[in-house]
Structure formats: structure tokens, C-alpha cells
Amino acid sequence: MRYIVGPLLLAGLGCTLGCTRPQPVKLAVDPSLARLVPVDTILLTGVRVQELRATPLYRKLESRGGAGVREMTDLLAKSGFDVNKDVSALLIASNGVSTIIMAKGSFKIATLDALRESGPKSGSKSASGRKSEYKGRAIYGDGDGSFTLLDDSTAVAGSAASVRAAIDLAAAGGASGHPLLAAAASLPVTSQIWAVGTDLGVFADRYVPREGNLANARRLLKSTKSVTLSADMTTGVKASIAGTCASDQDAKLLNDTLRGILGLGRLSVPEERRELLRLYDGVKVERRDLTIHLEIDQPAELLDKLIDMFAPPASLGLFPYPEGGAA
Fold first, then answer.
1. Mean pLDDT score across all residues of the chain
2. Which of 27, 171, 262, 293 has a CA that sits 20 to 30 A from residue 148's CA?
3. Which are the contacts of 304, defined by CB distance < 8 A and separation ≥ 6?
4. Does the residue 17 lie in any domain?
5. 242 versus 131: which is more confidently predicted?
6. What whole-number distance in Å separates Cα of residue 67 and Cα of residue 76?
7. Which strand (E) or helix (H) includes residue 131?
8. How far is CA 287 from CA 24, 117, 128, in A?
9. Who contacts 190 (Cβ-Cβ below 8 Å, separation ≥6)?
10. Residue 276 covered by a domain
11. Share of residues in the chain with pLDDT > 90 (%)
């Protein structure tokens, strides 16, 4: 018997060491931000800011910002934030009506208070210089331009009501069990930008016209039960978007619509810019039952050409944001 048990134990040990597959690394949301996600969130977006800023594509786009980027950086610096190192991650939650932005990084509460105290003493003080308190925490600004620092590494911005709700959640101290966080965990850990959403009909009701050319887009949005997006810009752009529809008819409509858009896009490419056809070659649409998958794979050298073709050089001092700041 002992001649049998020994080999069996060795075989079992060998299988345990050699046959166990490594567990895939999951995309993780910082727990201190995850617990701030409102319960009514239907769209959750994450940005790994440090990793995104390190990508060649971001650096090239940033270099085209010229004076506009420098002005924005200076403005943030006056508020006590260094855009190059303060913010490491963003988590953006929306219920279709209001949006709250949660940031992880290195923030200085004392700097903000000092800035406010040194600001203008007259009634012309800007909204960002106003300060109130809620449950012992300072809230800067007012209305939709409110923000607070929960500690030296966590900031929250949004409407005054959203910021107060975040303070309540932080005080409760519990872990978040929002289902969208579980959906996010299935996305590639290499994603610098990601998003997960469910029942997005609220966005259709609020932002998409009921009639006209966008009527079909409204129907598609209302029929999409869930959406995931992941984008990796380490080399070029590799992105995956998946939308699960409510019915077979809706899935067919979404599939046909996306294919039609790509077809029309190819036909609209001017003769003198035939290289743009490669842009459409890098987009694939595939239907799997009720889910439509959109795969995007754009090489870095093609994107460089497009930036050189369409983005203004830094010497012009232009910055591609609408008036009033970044969208």
C-alpha cells in the first residue's frame, strides 16, 4: 500500500503546482471611491489618469493643446491642484440626470482654505471660492459646481446635493455592492478608460429628440439593456464596446445600423484622403445573439497621421475644448 500512496501524493502535488492556472487579473476600482457610487447610478465611467497620461497618443494630443493646455494647467495650479501629478484616477457616476465625479490623488485641504482666505473680500468672489459646511466637512463652490475633499487623497465634485450624498456615504463607511462595479471587474485591467451601463433609456428621454434623424438612435438607446466599454491606448487604440439589446429585433436593428454607418463612412471618404479608409478597416461589428460587439483596433502610426492632418499645431495656441473649459 505504501508503494502506491507515495506516488499518488507526488502526482497530486505535481498536478496542484503544474496544472493550476493563474487567475486573471481583474480591473479594480479603488474601494474608497467604490463606496461613494450612488445607488441610482446607471452609467459608471473610470479613467486611470496616470496611465492615460503616459500613453503616446495622449502626449501627442496634449502637445497640440499649445497655450490652451498651459492656461488650464495654470488655472488648476491656482486651485491647489497639479494636473500632472495630483489626480491618479477618476470615477464618474451618472443617473441620467445628475453626474458626480470622484477623484483619487494627492490633494491639499490647507491649500484650498488658504486660497479662499487670500481671495477677493468683496461680493465678487467666484463660486469656486465660496465655502460652506455639511456634517463637519467643507464644501467649496455651490450649485452644480460644488466639490469637497474627503481627505488628502479623495475629492468629490458635482451638484451640491450629490456632494452631500457622497459625504453621507463616506461617513457610513460600508463597502459598495453596486452591480455596475461587478460588471466593471470583468473588463481588461489594461484599460485606461472604461465604462459600464444599464437601462440607459433615461439618457434617451433627456438628450435624444423624439423625431427627426435621431429617432432611431433614441429607440436603440432605450432598447439597450446593458453596455460595456474598454479602451487601451498603450499602442494606438484598442477598444471594445458591447451592447446587449432587449429583443432579437432590436439586436438586428443595432447591428444593421452600425454596419450602415460604417458603410456610409467609407463612401464619404474624399478621393484625396483615401488613407482614411484604413480608419474604417480598423472597426469590426459582430452580433452574438442579443449582444452587438464593436471592436476597434487603430495602429499608432495611422492615428499620428490623423492628428497631424486634423489637429492644429501647438504654435497656433488653440485648444479643442468648447468655451468654458473641458467637456
1. 77
2. 27
3. 60
4. no
5. 242
6. 14
7. strand 131-134
8. 26, 58, 47
9. 232, 234
10. yes
11. 35
Q: pLDDT band for position 110 (50/70/90)?
A: low
Q: How many residues are there in the chain?
A: 327
Question: Which residues 6+ apart lie within 8 Å of 208 measured at CB?
Answer: 214, 217, 218, 221
Give 12's pLDDT tier (boundaries 50, 70, 90): very low
* Residue at which a domain ends, from 142, 175, 208: 175
Does residue 248 lie in a domain region?
Answer: yes
Do 208 and 221 form a contact (C-beta atoms < 8 A)?
yes
Q: Which residues pair with 146 in a beta bridge?
A: 158
More confident residue, 201 or 34: 34
Q: Could you tell me if 212 and 162 lie in one domain? A: no
Contact 190, 239 (CB under 8 A): no
Cell, residue 73: 494647467
Q: How far apart are CA 323 and CA 205, in angstroms?
A: 26
- Taking the C-alpha atoms of residue 79 and residue 87, their distance in angstroms, rounded to an integer, is 13
Rounded to a whole number, what is the largest CA-CA distance in the chain? 93
For residue 210, give the 3-state DSSP assignment: coil
Same domain, 214 and 164: no
* Cβ atoms < 10 Å from Cβ of 43: 20
pLDDT of res. 64? 67
Residue with cell 465611467: 45
Strand-pairing partners, residue 240, are 230, 295
Higher pLDDT, 299 or 122: 299
Residue with cell 442579443: 290
Give the Cα separation of 98 and 45 in Å (integer).
14
Cβ proximity of 298 and 236 under 8 Å? yes
To which residue does cell 494606438 refer?
A: 236
Residue with the three cell numbers 498603450:
234
* C-beta separation of 33 from 104 below 8 A: yes
Model pLDDT for residues 32-76, shown as the tens digit of each residue = 999 999 999 999 999 998 898 888 888 887 776 544 445 545 544
Domain that holds residue 268: 199-312
